[in-house]
Amino acid sequence: MQTINKTRAKELIKESKGKIFSTTFIKKDNTVRTLTSRTGKQYTPTGNKAPYKPEDYNLIPLYDMRKKAFRMLNLNTLLTLSINKEKYLIKQEEGRTGKQYKSKIRTLTISHFEFDQDGNNIII
After folding, report:
1. Contact predicate 27/88, CB 8 Å
2. Least buried of 21, 30, 32, 64, by fewest C-beta within 10 Å?
3. Measured at the alpha carbon of residue 9, what is the angle toward residues 13 and 35, in degrees to the nearest 5?
4. How confident is the model at residue 123 (pLDDT cuts 50, 70, 90)?
């Protein structure tokens, strides 16, 4: 498994061109979630447009393949990425909250990741 930074992870996601991939990240409530998703599916808002631009908060809009709904992936809390038959561990930047991001990042210590025989992420 390779280690990459968040910028490279963002590039890989943008270059996926609609292919399905898996990510593991920390949700706002400090729980860890695995998301199977894709880019390229267009969201059509039913009401007013969003009051913010996702890129201003380091978010990427994705389509959740299991729940059949749109989700926002926070790159600041991204832990792993499985894309193009490759598995990546995301390098965590210590102490970085980023002045340009208004969301608060909570601290979570993780000893390491492993993958089970089915390729699912497991946090040890």
Report:
1. no
2. 30
3. 60
4. low
pLDDT digits (tens, 9 = 90+) for 46-83: 777 778 888 899 999 999 999 999 999 999 999 999 99
80 beta partners: 24, 89
CB 90 within 8 A of CB 98: no
Q: How far is CA 97 from the centre of its chain?
A: 16
Residue 12's contacts (CB-CB under 8 Å, 6 or more residues apart) are 4, 81, 83, 84, 88
Domain spans of the chain, in order of start? 2-42+52-123
Phi, psi of 10 (to 5 degrees): -60, -40
Report the amino acid identity of residue 90.
I
Q: How far apart are CA 86 and CA 94, in angstroms?
A: 25
In the numeric block, which tokens belong to residue 57? 């908060």
